Amino acid sequence: MRGAVARGVRAAAVLLALAALAHTLWHGLAESGTALAFGALIALGELARRDPGGLAGPQPAPLGAAGALAYALLGQNAGLPTRHGVLQTLAVVVAAALAGIVPHVARGRGPAADHLARRVLTVAFAAVCFQPLHAAGGAVGQGPGLALFLVLLLGLTALCDAVLAAALAGGRTGRPYGHLLRDELRARLGIGSAIGATGVVMALGVAVAGLWAVPVLSVPLLLTQLSFHRITAIRTTYRQTITSLARATEIAGYTPPGHSRRVAALSCAVGRELGLSQRELTVLEYAALMHDIGQLSLVDPVPDGATAGLPAAEARRIAGLGGEVARQTGVPAEVAEVVERQADPYREQPVPARIVRAVNAYEDLAARLAGAGRHPGGSLEALEQLRLGTGRDYQPEVVECLARVLARGERARVVPVPPG
Predict the structure, then answer these.
(1) Beta-carbon contacts of residue 5 (< 8 Å; ≥ 6 apart)
(2) Of 200, 335, 368, 395, which is most buried with the most CB atoms under 10 A?
(3) pTM
């Protein structure tokens, strides 16, 4: 069902884009100078996008999104009514976005098609709500009335974008739609608010001052986009550092190769299934990567690095050592706490620690039952053993989420185990 909804969204975006391009090619551009100015802004925004790859996901293109929204909400240019209409708005947005994306695609790092589908449908929603009313002549008012209408429309457009993003993400990942929609709405409160406000202000500025307002009002958002690049680079480096620290147990022979990365990826899949926020998922990923780091303090390694079968007191001692090591590395306090408390009774643990405990136990049991250090396909018997321990050692909801993730085969999609 979710896949059908996502395919329907993509098909609607393609049909709208083709219809808009065909209409504009047939009738020509109205007010070509304005169209070129906003098209250049949107293309520049897409060109300035960078995709760091990995688990960081695609970066937003705030400048391109704000330019597209401003063109959809443009009713006047230096006091003169505009005539570009809904279909030309879509055509300019699609053509400019494609022009900005092409260089990224040539380097093999272009954004997903869902990004463009969302842009088309969101801009179409804003333009359909605004352009006909403006063309009707004074229907949306002027001055404070126009500003109030644009703010209301901005909220509805943000909601539309969140709904579309959640529908498309649900089709790709199979995650619960409610959790996805909540995450998307939260995201709109951050950079989404700045994008929307800049788009509205840009449309109002062009209405009074003409196209000179476009470059002037673009500078703050361009600086914001450049800041995103730097923040993303810092986060990527930070994650690589933690991943390298986590590999110390593998290099020293305390744990099987790739164990920490498999536990981290599967823990994040379970966390998404449980509806954790993006910040909670980041804490969970870092803690899962470092969950075995306490074994570096042991004189005699645990056989196969499997801490799930140890006596409770010994497991808590190793977890406590891991928490101390994690704090010395400078990770956030929440990460060290999860590492430290992963062996506590689950009712006393924070949710990330419950997830790490269950997933680590599954990995250890699956490897033991398979008689090897790695067991990519998982093990129903290992899962059943976890179910027998629910109510005592593992939270039942976490175990059932783990079962759903494994049943969907999500583990095979998300677990990054680089060679070597």
Answers:
(1) 167, 170, 171
(2) 335
(3) 0.71
